[in-house]
Write a structure and sequence with these properties.
This protein is an alpha/beta fold. Helices cover about 35% and strands about 20% of the residues. It is built from 7 helices and 9 strands; from the N terminus they run βαββαββαβαβαβαβα. The strands form 2 sheets. It has a 7-stranded parallel beta sheet, sandwiched between helices. The two termini are about 15 Å apart.
């Protein structure tokens, strides 16, 4: 199975969630588009401790830390959706998106279009900040409208029970994991949350 990790904003915790998911499933990992350094692939490699996972090369590795469409333009590269082809994987594949679902790749295509071309289930990361209810529900509605299957929701950050309750009420999504604000993230932390995720995985 392919799992596409997306979020309601940039810096929402997709890379941490991708590492937890990769560890839990002993899956392979692929970041189709990377803009700037440090590479998310290297961070997931640092955090994953199982010896089964493979880490695949990006379809586009861009130098400039910006939206993919802008980064590609600065780097003199044209991102072509049809060239973003998943690697052959002999086990589950965790695919980490870039930013949110409507981050542009070029003048026509968005991150969500990558997910639509790949048979997958979406993991939606909602980090808890003022405005996250609106952003989460908008993202959910778009994923639903596009016909994408959503495996579940992961809350990331300092708990806000009322916001979480409203999001659960209006999406009906299964909450797979709640990750509090963490001061330190290492392999042991990832293994801990991988076990919690496994307990909610069905």
């Amino acid at each position: 199975m392919n799992y596409f990790v997306t979020a309601i904003d940039t810096d929402s915790g997709k890379t941490l969630v991708s590492a937890i998911l990769t560890e839990m499933l002993e899956a392979n990992y692929w970041k189709p588009i990377q803009s700037g350094q440090p590479r998310d692939t290297e961070e997931v490699m640092r955090l994953v401790s199982n010896e089964q996972s493979q880490f695949f090369k990006e379809a586009y590795l861009l130098k400039t830390p910006a939206s993919p469409h802008a980064s590609a333009k600065i780097d003199g590269v044209e991102i072509k959706l049809e060239e973003i082809i998943p690697p052959v994987s002999n086990r589950d594949l965790v695919i980490e998106g870039a930013g949110g679902v409507l981050v542009p790749l070029n003048d026509e295509d968005m991150v969500i279009d990558i997910a639509q071309r790949i048979p997958c289930e979406v993991i939606l990361v909602s980090n808890l900040y003022l405005g996250n209810i609106n952003h989460t529900l908008l993202t959910y509605e778009l994923l639903k409208t596009r016909g994408l299957k959503i495996k579940g929701l992961i809350f990331n950050g300092e708990s806000n029970p009322d916001s979480e309750r409203i999001i659960e009420l209006h999406t009906g999504l299964n909450v797979l994991l709640r990750i509090p604000k963490l001061n330190k993230v290492d392999q042991q932390v990832v293994k801990h949350y991988a076990q919690l995720l496994k307990d909610n995985w069905s």
